[in-house]
Here is the input.
Amino acid sequence: MAAGKLKKLAVIGGGPKGVAIAIKAHALNKVTSRRLQVEIFERDEIGSHWRGAVGYTDGEQELCTPAFRDLGFPYTPEKRVPAKVQDYCHAELSWSAFKVADGTYRDWINHGCPRPTHGDFADYLQWAAVKARCKITQTDVTGLEPKGSKWTLFAGAGRSRISLGDFDGVVVTGPGPPRNARATPHPQIFDGRDFWSRTDEVRAALKNALPDDEIVIAGAGGTAAAIIAWLARAGYKSHPIIVVSVQPTLFTRGESFFEEDLFSNEAAWAALSPASRKLFSERLTRGVVWRAVMPQISKMSLTFVDRRMHAIDDSGAGRRGQVSLIAQDHLGARTPFPGAIVINALGFDSWWFLKLLPTTAFPFGVSETAQESLKQGMNRHLAFESGWTLPPLHAPFLAEKIGPGFGSLLALGDMSNRVVASYI
Ligand SMILES: Cc1cc2nc3c(=O)[nH]c(=O)nc-3n(C[C@H](O)[C@H](O)[C@H](O)COP(=O)(O)OP(=O)(O)OC[C@H]3O[C@@H](n4cnc5c(N)ncnc54)[C@H](O)[C@@H]3O)c2cc1C
Here is the structure.
């Protein structure tokens, strides 16, 4: 390859997706003549969303997916990312290689290959990033500006805004902030991110409550389930839990071969009609709870209320200063549901990255219809294409049209193949 043609790719976020892409580029550079430079920009530390220090988890919960679905899974070659790259990743950077390196492989096998905790998973990400000598810059990316066919990344704001360099493409990762996140915390109101870093406040609020005071939760997906499982483990079984959601119950997801296979079987996925793809994604990736957490949840007293969260009333007007979730039914009627604590577990804003783009990019914002059409117009490299006039921006977690596993940990190896293949 001629000098000066080296492509540079920026990844915002040092979670599993960022590390999977960076180690794939490392393997390519190591075992082929192809060259790609990847730089991870991470505001905290590698795997921070999995350690428990900044929310999203307490770090002690078990991963729902088995550890074998690691950074390179399923190790399938791609036209431009040959088998020897996959072999290198498997031999050097897989979960098994990590367990061998830290001396716990035999133990892990003899215990029946238990699922790692989120904290253990973060250790694996950190180990792989160090072993593959990933280039990591610790900073909060605050802006992306197009410069010809490239992006310039920025950190800081106003007069202290600085350029982080120019890149041929950018990958955005991470679930984003909670939907309807509060600007200021309230001692009885929590969300799917801050619940985990504020469990002392949860305990304090429940200590001040009567034993049978309600806990009110908005949402009936994986975030709500993880929180209910924590409440069970922490001993709050006497509190009735009101789950306000537009789905009638907690739907569970098993791990049958046929379901699992479709997450990383690209040919089978490509053969499906758009309607079947939508059905699969809605059935298996949205508002579903992994079977592993159900035994804990089943011990709790749950009442499902078929309504949509409208707002949270924090005026303390309820009995004994309770806060209330205001829920709206399908006819628009609103009812307050008071509780000792209220938890917004409605999920996260996966379009969070729009706030990084210049206002001129979408002067009138991006409506839900426009979001859907941008998702439908994504190319096979998980980048926006149809209706997109900016430099390449990859958003794997919005790429369910291309493959159902790209939003999660189910096919990190296929996801990274597709992203890096667009630069080599
Ligand atoms: C606690 C938790 C458990 C989950 N468990 C499973 C599971 O078992 N199986 C499964 O398939 N899926 C699971 N998911 C869902 C999904 O797989 C993940 O949300 C997603 O794949 C996480 O990978 P990621 O690399 O995109 O993001 P993350 O791991 O969330 O990493 C994003 C990183 O980006 C950084 N960041 C964000 N904004 C900026 C910025 N502006 N500048 C710099 N850095 C920034 C953050 O600090 C963070 O470290 C889980 C999600 C969470 C949050």
Notes: The mean pLDDT is 93. The longest helix spans residues 16-31. The longest strand covers residues 36-42.
